[in-house]
Design brief:
2 copies of one chain form a homodimer. Chain A is mostly helical. Chain A folds into 2 domains: about 1-50, Homeodomain-like (Arc Repressor Mutant, subunit A); about 65-200, Tetracycline Repressor, domain 2 (Orthogonal Bundle). Chain A is built from 9 helices and no strands. The longest helix of chain A has 24 residues, at about 55-80. At the A-B interface, helix 7, helix 8 and helix 9 of A face helix 7, helix 8 and helix 9 of B. Chain A binds a DNA duplex (19 and 19 nucleotides) through helix 3.
Chain lengths: ~200, ~200
DNA sequence: ACCTGAACACCGTTCAAGT
DNA sequence: ACCTGAACACCGTTCAAGT
C-alpha cells in the first residue's frame, strides 16, 4: 500500500466528517473512536492525523456542521410566519425538533469541552452568536423600549431556558411521571417569560 | 499480597467515591479512569470491581452524592427568607453558586448517560424529584389559583431554564462578549417568568 | 507526497491464582 | 474470603519506513 491517492485531502476530510456523524448518530458520543472512523472510510488511523489535528479537532468540525444545520432549520421555521409572538414559539419548537430528531449529534455540541486552552475558535463562536441573533431578531418587534443590551440578555436567558429543558429531557432528569412534554414545557417558559418581558397583560 | 483486609468493603467504597470526587473536581470527567481511582486508594483495579458493578456504577454513586449536596445547599438557601419571590431568587442563585464552585462535578451529573437500558434507578430519580419539589414549594405561595400540575410544570420549565443558562456558561457557549453574567441571566429569566406566571403586573 | 504499520502509553473488564 | 497480576480487547497519537 502507501501512496494511494484514491481521494484528495478534501475528500478524505468530507468522508471522515460523514463517518463521525453516522457513528455518533447511531452509537452516541461515547461510541466514537478515531480507529472506528478510520475503518469506516477505509484508511488507517494515521491518515486521520494528516487531515485533522486530533480527535478533538474532528469533533469540533462536526459540531460546526451540526450548528449550521440547526441555524438553517431555525431560519426556515420562522420564514413564513407573520405574528411576532408566534415566530418565537416556532423558533423554540424548531430547536426542540432538532434536538429530538438527532439527540446524540445535538448533545455532542454541548458535551464537548475544549481540549487545553478552554477557548473555541472565533469562527465557531460566530455560529453560536448567529443562533442568538435569530432569537434577538424575533424579540425586537415585541420588545418595546428595551435597549439592545436588554434584548441580547433576554435572548440568552430564553434560549438557555429552552436548551436546559431539552437537556433535562434527553438525559432523563425531568424526574416526573412523564406528564411534561418538552414542547409544552418550552411553551410554558416562552409564554410566561414573554408576558413578563413585554408586560402584555397590562396594556 | 492478596488478603489484606486493611479496610472493610464499606471503607473501600467510601475511599473510592472520595477519590473520584477529587479526580473529577480537578481534571474533569474526561480525566477519570478506573485505574487512576484504584491507584489513588492504594488498591488494584480488580478490587474496584468487587465493590462496584463497573465504572458507570461508580459514576452514578458519585452523582448521587453530588445531588444530595446540591439539595442540601438549596434547602439552606431558602431557610431564613420570608418574601416568596425572594426565596425563589435565592434558590436560583444557590443552584448557580453550586455549579460555579465545582463545575466538573456538577457537569458530570448531566453529562453521564446511563449504560445500556437507558433508565436510572428509582432512588436516583427520587433525588432529582426532591430538587423539583423544593422549587414547587417556593412556587406554591405565589401561584394563585394554579393547579398542582401547572405548578409542577412551572417548576420544571423554570429549573430547566436556570440549568440551561449554567450549561451554556460552563461550556463557553453564551456567545457574547461577556456582558452577560450567569446570575443576571438567571434573574432575568426568573423575574420575567414569574411576572408572566403570576400576572403580577396587572393586579 | 501520501499512506501504512507498528509502536507507545494508556484504557475497561475479567478471572485464575495466590494467601 | 479477599485481593492480585496478568490477560484481553480496546483506546489516542506518533513516526520511521515503504512506494
Amino acid at each position: 500500500m502507501a501512496r494511494r491517492s484514491d481521494h484528495s485531502r478534501d475528500e478524505i476530510r468530507e468522508m471522515a466528517l460523514s463517518a463521525v456523524e453516522e457513528l455518533v448518530s447511531k452509537k452516541g458520543y461515547e461510541g466514537l473512536s478515531a480507529r472506528k472512523v478510520a475503518a469506516a472510510i477505509g484508511y488507517t488511523v494515521g491518515t486521520l492525523y494528516l487531515v485533522f489535528e486530533n480527535l478533538d479537532d474532528l469533533v469540533v468540525q462536526v459540531n460546526a456542521r451540526t450548528l449550521d444545520r440547526l441555524n438553517l432549520q431555525m431560519m426556515e421555521a420562522v420564514g413564513e410566519i407573520g405574528d411576532d409572538r408566534q415566530r418565537l414559539m416556532s423558533l423554540g419548537q424548531s430547536y426542540i425538533r432538532f434536538a429530538e430528531e438527532d439527540p446524540h449529534l445535538w448533545e455532542m455540541v454541548f458535551k464537548h469541552r475544549v481540549p487545553r486552552n478552554g477557548q473555541l475558535p472565533a469562527w465557531y463562536q460566530e455560529k453560536v452568536s448567529r443562533m442568538f441573533a435569530q432569537v434577538e431578531r424575533c424579540l425586537k418587534p415585541i420588545a418595546g423600549h428595551k435597549t439592545p443590551g436588554e434584548i441580547a440578555q433576554a435572548a440568552r436567558a430564553l434560549w438557555g431556558g429552552v436548551h436546559g429543558i431539552c437537556i433535562l429531557a434527553v438525559t432523563g432528569k425531568l424526574g416526573g411521571v412523564g406528564v411534561e412534554s418538552v414542547p409544552d414545557l418550552a411553551e410554558s417558559l416562552l409564554i410566561n417569560y414573554l408576558d413578563g418581558f413585554t408586560g402584555s397583560r397590562n396594556p
